[in-house]
């Protein structure tokens, strides 16, 4: 695996041409034998006396035997997705649960219930469910199946069967107690390395996310100014007969570049920004998963310390320690497998995203360059024609 440090270094053997750099990466999308297909679409607004909210249609098609039908269609609101995520975290504390979009959009982006916001959220919810469907363990979770198949009243009834307040309080108390005890004594080296990796990854991805948003903002400002720049040349041409054609040509070039810029902005907002922000959220999730693993390890360490101080109850504690050792082993194995899978997906997503951005940038600059070169060529031809006409007797 390429370390984060190595990503910032450039090998002298790397090709200079951007196009040849892009050609290094060929992604072989081999068809997989999938048996679960999920689509999130058709957002619908609901207004009640108490609140206003959006529901989304979730369509599921499957060939799995554990489903009673091959196709389901239900409507879900954001709160239902939050419930599913919490149930998955509860059932699989050391697996990496995909992130959900935040409840409220970041300041400076778009307003809640704005069409752009709703569409951005719809795409994120669609990706959330499909990442779960593609996960080798999460895809068979019973709550996930209920989320996909149960009607609204059935899901509401199922939610009420969750852990009670006292149970949730107990989990919170254990988490706080674990954090108070301090660091884990016997944490395996690989999990310490994971913590260090995620701390570095989190810092890098947050910076990239901020820079990408700043680039997008500057690009939008440039686009808005360029939209005003072209028409000025058209107006100018009306008062300058001798250079009217040239001014109209400049206005046409600016208009074409404006459209190319708009297309590039769409590529940034649809491909780069969502991926970077998704992995900002993933970094928070990974840190939470590692903390939960440490809590399980902390329970084992606590019992071993207690056993050392209570020789008389050795047999009773030995039994409990055996169960905790099994629990830690299961947690470690689950996280190890999911870590490798997540890291592979992350590297593929990042490589694919940045390659896509590079290709879009190449197309953008080639398109703008061709536009202006064509204009200059036409002006050169016109200039030669005028010179020839002047030289004739």
Descriptive labels:
single chain, mainly alpha, PX Domain, 2 domains, 3-stranded antiparallel β-sheet, 10 helices, 68% helix, 8% strand, disordered N terminus, BAR_SNX7, PX_SNX7
Describe the structure.
The protein has 393 residues and is mainly α. It has two domains: 33-150, Phox-like domain (PX Domain, 2-Layer Sandwich), CATH 3.30.1520; 186-392, Substrate Binding Domain Of Dnak, Chain:A, Domain 2. The chain has ten helices and three strands; from the N terminus they run H-H-E-E-E-H-H-H-H-H-H-H-H. Strand 1 (36-47) and strand 2 form a beta hairpin. The chain is elongated. Pfam families: PX. Belongs to the sorting nexin family.
Question: Can you describe this structure in just a few lines?
Answer:
One of its GO terms (molecular function) is phosphatidylinositol binding. With 393 residues, this protein is mainly alpha-helical.
Question: How would you summarize the topology of this molecule?
Answer:
Blueprint: H1 4-7, H2 18-22, E1 36-47, E2 52-62, E3 71-77, H3 78-91, H4 115-134, H5 142-149, H6 152-159, H7 165-180, H8 189-237, H9 244-309, H10 314-391
Antiparallel strand pairs: 1-2, 2-3
Helix pairs in contact: 7-9, 8-9, 9-10
